[in-house]
Amino acid sequence: MVLISYIKLVYSYVLIFLGEVAMLAGETLLSIARGRIRPRLVIYQIAEIGYRSQLVVVVTGAFTGAVFTAQAYFQFASLNMETAVGSVVAVSMFRELGPVLAGVMVAGRVGAAMSAEIGTMKVTQQIDALRALAVSPVDYLVVPRSIAMFISMPFLVAESVGCGILASYYVGVKVLNISGVYFLANTQKWVDSSDIVMALVKGFFFAGIIVFISCREGLNAKGGAVGVGRATTYTVVNCSLAILIVNFFLTMALNIIFPAG
After folding, report:
1. pTM metric for this prediction
2. Is the pLDDT of residue 8 over 90?
3. Which of 55, 89, 147, 218 has CA 20 to 30 A from 74's CA?
């Protein structure tokens, strides 16, 4: 009975959480459709979300591509398939590793910052002051961050994938002595536009997950500094889990639409 009650409690929490995120997303999209956009705030958020996240995304993508190349080479060498390393790494970076790792890193850096900033405004009653001035918190806080995230995230995913493939080429050709001609030829043969589309589509979906969960946690923060810290922790955990779960379903759906090879 205790286990059943616990399961029901978790189930209820998940449904409430998903409902609140969906309502916030709907209200945000409605505000965008009505033209309630502040260009200066959007540009500022693009700089915060996109420009200042490049370093962590580039380093993550580069070293992921490098270590995956090394591991693939050590396995493929026993089968005399070293030249296939480039295509395997490139397809993996486009379809899975690049978007997922970029999403998780952006959730840790940007999502936590969003939640902490909005949560601090909530517990210090700055959001109540916005409402008193007839300014919608969604229009002022969520809309600029949403637009900036949807613009920035596909570019960050592209940077992560590109740096991963460049690092893969360097490690494979310069360090492991794989033939550069065959490395590039196999990569060009097995990577096509569908892989690029899949990476960008995943980046777009992950952008929505990060921004709406982060803003939801920030707007629901309470209990002073402890509540802000709790909201920040929940943001990183929930965004990371949501990205991994949604990635599975996106992979299944997109591979039907864009089959590999």
Report:
1. 0.91
2. no
3. 55
